[in-house]
Amino acid sequence: MQIETKSTVLDQFGWTFRVSQVDESADRVLLLLHGWTGDENSMWAFMRNAPPNYAIIAPRAPYLAPKDKGGYSWREMKPGTWGSPTREELQLAGDALVSLVDEWSDTLSISSTTFDVIGFSQGGALATTLAALYPSRIYKMAVLAGFIPEGVDAILRPGLLKNIRCFWAHGTQDELVSFERGRASLKMLDEAGAQIQFCEADVGHRVSKDCRRALDAFLEA
């Protein structure tokens, strides 16, 4: 896979992760969460035009996906659990990711108490889980072809996400995470107070060129 931004892979803090070459102006952490069967390289195609003030970190999910699929998963795959991940299944990884962001921020002497996050598909589900569990820690959240997992809806409440700016991109022809599920998830975020920017396109389980450009603008603003 082509890496769009100068970066390197590290093994620290119990994780394997790819990080950007940090500019001296970096004052915020951007967390990238790949989808099911992805790895630490999967999200870098979205970083071609990333603002220079970001210290970008893309962890490899901690669990192996099925051998016939390859890659990694944000939840442990057990027999009988092949459906969509639940909040309980994602929370362990979510809690550990917040600690990772804090440790990486300390290493770079970044003092911001909030960070930004982009998640694709299962990574998008994890991003919404992080927002619901840690609403005071996230400022910008971009969910790409994602969804709100079962159980997260139970902890969302009016005003919980009022300080979070959310970008959501979804394909009307998405064959893995239906467009209808994406819209239903958006409604829950809206009711919880998130400031939402929505980009839809006539594509499948991916992000269109127009939505990529809209994502760049969202990160830059």
Overview of this protein structure:
The chain is of the alpha/beta class and 221 residues long. The chain has a single domain (7-220), classed as Alpha/Beta hydrolase fold, catalytic domain (Rossmann fold). Helices cover 27% and strands 25% of the residues. It has four helices and ten strands; from the N terminus they run ββββββαβαββαβα. Strands 1-2-4-3-7-8-9-10 form an eight-stranded mixed sheet, with helices on both faces. A two-stranded antiparallel ribbon has the order 5-6. Helix 1 packs across helix 2 (122-133). The longest helix is centred in the middle third of the chain and has 22 residues, at 87-108. The protein starts with 6 loop residues before the first strand and ends with a helix. The model has no long low-confidence stretch (mean pLDDT 94).
Layout of strands and helices, then pairs:
Layout: E1 7-12, E2 15-20, E3 28-33, E4 54-59, E5 63-64, E6 72-73, H1 87-108, E7 115-120, H2 122-133, E8 138-144, E9 165-171, H3 179-191, E10 195-201, H4 209-220
Parallel strand pairs: 3-4, 3-7, 7-8, 8-9, 9-10
Antiparallel strand pairs: 1-2, 2-4, 5-6
Helix pairs in contact: 1-2
